[in-house]
Each structure stands twice: as C-alpha cells, then as structure tokens.
Write a structure and sequence with these properties.
The complex is a heterodimer of chains A (332) and B (263). In chain A, 77% of the residues lie in helices and 0% in strands. Chain A is an all-alpha fold. The model of chain A has no long low-confidence stretch (mean pLDDT 90). The two termini of chain A are 46 Å apart. Chain B has 263 residues and is of the alpha/beta class. Helix content of chain B is 37%, strand content 24%. Chain B has helices at residues 52-60, 99-109, 113-126, 142-154, 172-189, 200-206, 237-262; strands spanning 9-19, 25-36, 41-45, 67-72, 75-76, 84-87, 160-164, 192-197, 209-214, 219-225. Chain B has a 6-stranded mixed sheet, with helices on both faces. In chain B, a hairpin with a 4-residue loop joins β9 and β10. Chain B is globular, with a radius of gyration of 19 Å. The mean pLDDT of chain B is 87. The chains are: A mainly alpha (332), B alpha/beta (263). The A-B interface holds A 224, 226-227, 229-237, 240, 244-245, 248-249, 251, 323-329 and B 60-62, 79-82, 84-86, 88, 90, 92, 94-98, 105-106, 108-110, 136-139, 152-153, 156, 162.
Chain lengths: 332, 263
C-alpha cells in the first residue's frame, strides 16, 4: 500500500531529530548575564569583597538549560514544553541580569535596601540551616491552624447547609464574626491562649474557617434537589445524603472556600509571626529588617514565595484529583 | 420462571393539594381510584399539568397524599424506598460518580454491595453500557445516560419502576430503541412499570393499560386496555385506531378545561 507523505516511522524519525531554536534562548540569556557579570566592572563605590555566588548560579543555570536543550533534541515532549516556556525563562534571566546591573554594576539603588543578587545568594549559602529551621516552625504552625480551620469549617458548613435548626442559630454568628479579619483578634488571642503558638494556630484556624464554612454551606444548600430525591428512591438515608450526595456535589464550592482560606491563612501566619511568635519565616524577615539586613529579608521573601506557591500547587493537584469528574465541565 | 409477583399499587380516593405562592390551594389530584396489578405495564397520559407526575411522586413517596390511601402490596406508602425505583426525564446521574459507581449507588447505601457486586456488572450488560463503566456522566450521550439511570434504579430490584417521561428528551430513533429495551427488561424482570408520557404512540407501544387523565383537578378520564400482542407494529390498524381514540379523548379533555377556564 502506497502512502502519501511520511510513514509513521519516518514521522517519528523527523520528530526525533527536529531542532527548535527557542530551546537555546534561555542559555543565551544566561550566558549574556554571566558575561555582563564577569566583564563589566563593579561600581567604584562598591567596596565589599566580590562574591562568587551569582557566577555559580549562572553557571549552574547554563548547565541545566544546556541539558534541557540537548534532551529536546531527542524527546518531542520535552522539546515542546521547554520551547514553550523558554521565552519566559530567558526573560526572567534577563531580569536578574538587569537587577545585577542596577545594583552591583551601577549602584542605582540604595545599597542597604536593595542588595545585589550575590549578597542575597550569600544568605542562602551561609544561613540555609537556620532558614530551614524557621521554615519548619512556620509550616508546623500553618499546618496545625489550617487543618483545624478547614475541618471545623467543613463541619460547620455541613451543619448549617444541611439543617435548618443549625442554620437558624449559627448563621447570624457566622455573618457577624466571619468577616472580622482574623488578625484583628490578635490582642484577644494573645491573652486567651497559654502560648503564642496556640494563639497563632487559633487565628489561622479562624482565617480558614470562615470562607470554608460559608462556601461549604452555600455549596450544600445549592445542591439540586433532584439528586436527593433520586438518592432517596435508591434507598439512601440522611447520612448517605450528606456524605454521598451533598458533600461531593458541593465539593467544587468547598474547594473555592478552601482556596480563599489558604490565602487568608498565609496572611495570618505572617502577621502572627511578625507580632510575637518566636521563629518562623515571618519572624525571620521582621528580625532581619530590624537589623537592616535586607539581603536576608529578600532571602526570606524568596523562601515564602516558593513555599506558598508550592502549597497552592499541591492543593490544585489535590483538587484536580478529587474533582476529576468535572474535567471539561468547569475550567479554572 | 418468574417468582410470585409483588408490586401491586392501589390508590383509593387519592387526593393531593398544593398551596400556590399566593396562598390559594390548588387541587392537583382529586379522588383517584386505581388498582395496578403486579407486573403490569401502565402508562399515564394526559395534558400537561394534569397531575401525572404528582401521582408518580406520591407513589415514589417523595410527596405525601392529603387524602385517601396509596398502598403497595396492601401496605401504605409513607416515604421513599428502594422498592419503588424512579427514573426522571433528566437522567440525574450523580456527576461525581462513574457509570459503575452510579449504578452501584443503591447497593452501597444499602450495604449490600459487597455481596452483589456482580449485579452491577450484569446491569451494565443488560442496558448495553459495557466499556463505559469508568466514564463520567458528562462523557455520555443522552441515551447512554438514560440507560445508566435505568440500570441504577433496576439494580435494586424494585417491585415498581416509576418512569417520568424517561425518553422525552431523546431523539426519535434512540427513543424507539430504548422502548424496546425497556420492554425486554420488563419481560425479563416482571417489574411493575408506571410510566408518565406525553407520547401516545409510546403509551400504546408499551402498555398493558393506559390511564388517561383529565386536567386539574386530575381525575382519571378513562382506562384503556391495550389488547394487542407484542411486539406491536406501530402502523397496524389496531394501533392506529387506538391512537385516534386516545387523541380524541385527550382533545375532549383539553377542550373541557378550556371551557372551564373561560367560565
């Protein structure tokens, strides 16, 4: 049988050897940054000893991007994904380059508040153990408060959304207490709990509890009545209707509540740590700010950014796993 | 051999009222008396708003009568139960469950799933959904979704299956297929079937008896015995004659309502 065009095998061979120029753009951007860093002299006003960290970072980036570019030659999947992202990565590296020029090379910005990339990287090199410890403290507090808040929120949400009696007694309370930003409770929380840890965990729980409650209960009360009717003609009792119908049907809404709560919990965590909790990333940033070590402040901010976005990504993964039945129905 | 049939429905002086938003009471069903034999295929037909669906909901136990009796095998119906399965026009599959899980739902909530796992697979085969066990409802066509809904009700081995315009949303071709399948299942299972429909042909094609209802307050206009063997040719003279007769009755019932309305 004669075929028009390439056979599948030929197609695969072509794909295998195809080369995409944009897979080299990140490497070029990193090389440019490295050249600027090495060849352009530092500002004459910059008197501190030169540091090796930015050079190491850029060398590492060049190595990694080269490996990715090489892999792209062999795998279509890697090539497509990497080529798609490459312009963004290159732009980000260019931004680092410009930052380095503005701080180290030209000293356009006040050096105390805007340290050059080398100094920020040095913090990670010198202080990583302590930063990790602080991160551990933060996560312990966050997870404790978050778990309590989310569970309490879902429980209240189910009760209020399901039972008229609970709704009558509890709903007004939610309406009045809920909108108070949980950080406004700081003065009361600090004197009501034996430890600042407990007080902070309570505040975080409160921050998560409110949106989770509201969106769980509204999700449950908006479930189509026909689902309950069908389930009861299939033999479902109240307990099944709650856990096998109302809860899964309300899951999309519950997740919206949990996501709102996550944002609120981050804010509360930082505030709590800056106001009295010992250790933790927020405490670290605040402490370093008082010592005018802005390089450490930026390092802390970077750790927070990475951690929180990792948490959000994980939550999205969990949601996508649980709401797989929605795929193609609702897009985020 | 089919075991001794149960699933007899009897209504005596059945009455159901609704309170309209403006506070007025509307009688949806008034003084309905009917005896539906076990294993019988019954269609309820009549103009919209004549209380057919209300009757079905009463039998399902989703609504309570305001007067009279409604009995299943001589026992008053007090609430919903799995022995009276219900299929709506909208399949109302649970979108968060796969086809298999939807069909297994009844067994699971009754904690009999463990012993009857095989039944789910049998039901899937019975309604021709093999290969779609792991599909989610949004991936199904209308006809497939309705088959799944049918299987979900049937897996409980209901004594009575209540069908509220089950094929109303399907295209003509799928509808005829589904009618044949329903007949096959009915003949195999001997389940009492009570079906609400707007489609006179469908009623004649499927039913042992057709209950023609008059509009509000719903009364039974007449009960027609369909004395034809199965399968029924949709273009046989008997079929067409019966069709004309029912349409005439419906037309008359509709006109009377109009007169009442103008009075």
């Amino acid at each position: 049988m004669k075929r028009i065009g390439h056979t599948y095998k030929e197609e695969e061979m072509i794909n295998r050897t195809r080369f995409d120029l944009s897979t080299l753009v990140p490497t070029l951007s990193a090389v440019l940054a490295l050249l600027v860093h090495l060849l352009v002299p530092n500002s004459p006003r910059y008197t501190l000893k030169p540091l090796p960290y930015f050079t190491i970072l850029l060398a590492g980036v060049i190595a990694v991007t080269l490996v990715l570019a090489a892999l792209s030659l062999f795998s279509q999947r890697v090539r497509e994904r990497y080529a798609f992202k490459s312009w963004f990565i290159a732009a980000f590296l260019l931004l680092l380059n410009l930052l380095n020029i503005a701080t180290l090379k030209l000293m356009l910005l006040p050096v105390i508040y805007f340290p050059n990339p080398d100094r920020i990287l040095k913090v990670f090199a010198d202080d990583w153990a302590f930063i990790l410890k602080c991160l551990g403290y933060s996560l312990r507090l966050l997870v404790t408060g978050y778990a309590i808040g989310a569970l309490a929120g879902m429980t209240t949400g189910i009760l209020v959304g399901w039972s008229r009696k609970w709704s009558y007694w509890v709903n007004p309370l939610i309406k009045v207490i809920g909108p108070i930003p949980s950080t406004a409770w700081v003065p009361i929380a600090l004197v009501s709990f034996p430890t600042t840890f407990a007080a902070s965990a309570f505040l975080i729980a409160l921050a998560v509890w409110f949106p989770t409650t509201v969106l769980t209960s509204s999700g449950i009360s908006n479930v189509q009545n026909s689902y309950f009717e069908v389930s009861s003609t299939l033999g479902a009792k109240a307990i099944h209707k709650i856990f096998k119908v109302a809860l899964p049907a309300a899951a999309p809404s519950i997740f919206v509540g949990i996501f709102n709560g996550t944002g609120a919990s981050f804010i509360t965590l930082m505030t709590a740590e800056m106001m009295g909790v010992k250790y933790g990333i927020g405490w670290y940033i605040n402490w370093q700010k008082d010592m005018l070590s802005y390089a450490n402040v930026y390092a802390g901010l970077i750790v927070i950014a990475l951690t929180f976005s990792l948490i959000i990504t994980l939550l999205f993964r969990v949601r996508d796993r649980i709401l797989v039945w929605q795929k193609g129905v609702i897009k985020w | 051999m089919v075991e001794r049939l149960t699933g007899e429905i009897r209504a005596e002086n059945l009455r159901k009222e609704f309170i309209r938003p403006d506070g007025q009471t509307v009688v949806a069903i008034n003084d309905v008396n009917v005896a539906i034999k076990a294993g019988e295929f019954i269609s309820l037909i009549g103009p919209s708003g004549c209380g057919k669906s209300t009757f079905l909901r009463l039998v399902a136990g989703l609504a309570r009568p305001d007067g009279g009796f409604l009995l299943l095998d001589g026992v008053p119906i007090t609430g919903p139960g799995y022995e009276r399965g219900l299929v709506f026009q909208d399949p109302t599959l649970f979108p968060w469950l796969t086809v298999f899980e939807n069909i297994a739902f009844g067994l699971k909530v009754r904690s009999t799933y463990h012993d009857k796992k095989q039944e789910v697979q049998d039901m899937i085969r019975l309604v021709g959904l093999e290969g779609f066990e792991k599909a989610y409802p949004h991936q199904l066509s209308g006809g497939m979704a309705q088959r799944a809904a049918l299987a979900r009700a049937l897996v409980n081995h209901p004594k009575v299956l209540l069908l509220d315009e089950p094929f109303g949303a399907l295209d003509a071709f799928t509808r005829m297929n589904m009618q044949d399948e329903l007949l096959r299942i009915w003949q195999e299972r001997g389940t009492t079937m009570i079906m609400v429909t707007h489609d006179v042909d469908e009623a004649i094609y499927l039913s042992d008896r057709i209950i023609v209802m008059s509009p509000r307050p719903a009364k039974i206009e007449c009960i027609i015995n369909v004395e034809m063997g199965r399968p029924r040719g949709r273009d046989l003279p008997d079929f067409l004659r019966l069709r004309a007769r029912i349409l005439q009755i419906l037309d008359f019932a509709g006109k009377r309502e109009e007169i009442q309305y103008y009075l």
